[in-house]
Design the sequence.
């Protein structure tokens, strides 16, 4: 079973701080990686996708990928109370003949306090 | 773009009845659709993967006779929960795949079986 591991949290940060969310995955040949945000009772919404080693920045969000270490992270700068949600890491494992399914981690709950 | 509409958003049914959930891609043709289930405070668990015109591929432990998936067109997939029981109460979410790396989620269906 291919696995995606996340710390369940909660991760509590003060407003304006940097929140750092981490994820490791077991399938070394995974091709693409995603971070989703999920508010309670809602479906996930895509925050970032990353496919190559290194950093990818989009506004206050930066995704970092290290395939050698099988590690992907999400940094949220200038955290706001509205960022309080569960953040899901998802990996598209390489499977010959597969259908591009995503494997989700359990999610990290982020709480940004004023 | 890449909008997925899921209906109904919530449904209450009696034990032993069947419930159908629809997932439509509104502005694109979905190569593949995925059905997830999420219990409270848990992550998304993939139930099955469906491709238009072919049988769905179910994940291990998911009863294919209980969770019927029909993907009759490139824009519509349905999940029917047959003979529902209280333990089937959950949040069901569909996702549509476009191209190699695009995934869009529906808004989810909260099923309560009484």
Sequence:
């Amino acid at each position: 079973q291919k696995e995606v591991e996340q710390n369940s949290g909660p991760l509590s940060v003060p407003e304006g701080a940097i929140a750092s969310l981490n994820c490791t995955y077991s399938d070394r040949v995974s091709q693409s990686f995603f971070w989703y945000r999920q508010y309670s009772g809602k479906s996930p919404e895509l925050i970032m996708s990353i496919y190559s080693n290194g950093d990818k920045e989009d506004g206050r969000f930066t995704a970092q990928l290290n395939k050698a270490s099988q590690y992907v992270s999400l940094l949220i700068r200038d955290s706001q109370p509205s960022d309080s949600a569960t953040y899901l890491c998802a990996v598209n494992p390489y499977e010959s003949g597969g259908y591009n399914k995503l494997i989700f981690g359990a999610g990290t709950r982020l709480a940004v306090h004023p | 773009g890449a909008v997925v509409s899921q209906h109904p958003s919530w449904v209450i049914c009696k034990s032993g009845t069947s419930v159908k959930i629809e997932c439509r891609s509104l502005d694109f043709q979905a190569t593949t659709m995925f059905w997830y289930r999420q219990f409270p405070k848990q992550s998304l668990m993939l139930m099955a993967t469906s491709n238009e015109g072919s049988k769905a591929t179910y994940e291990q432990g998911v009863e294919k006779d209980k969770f019927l998936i029909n993907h009759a067109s490139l824009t519509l997939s349905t999940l029917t929960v047959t003979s529902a029981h209280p333990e089937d109460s959950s949040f069901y979410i569909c996702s549509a795949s476009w191209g190699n790396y695009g995934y869009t989620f529906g808004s989810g269906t909260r099923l309560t079986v009484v």
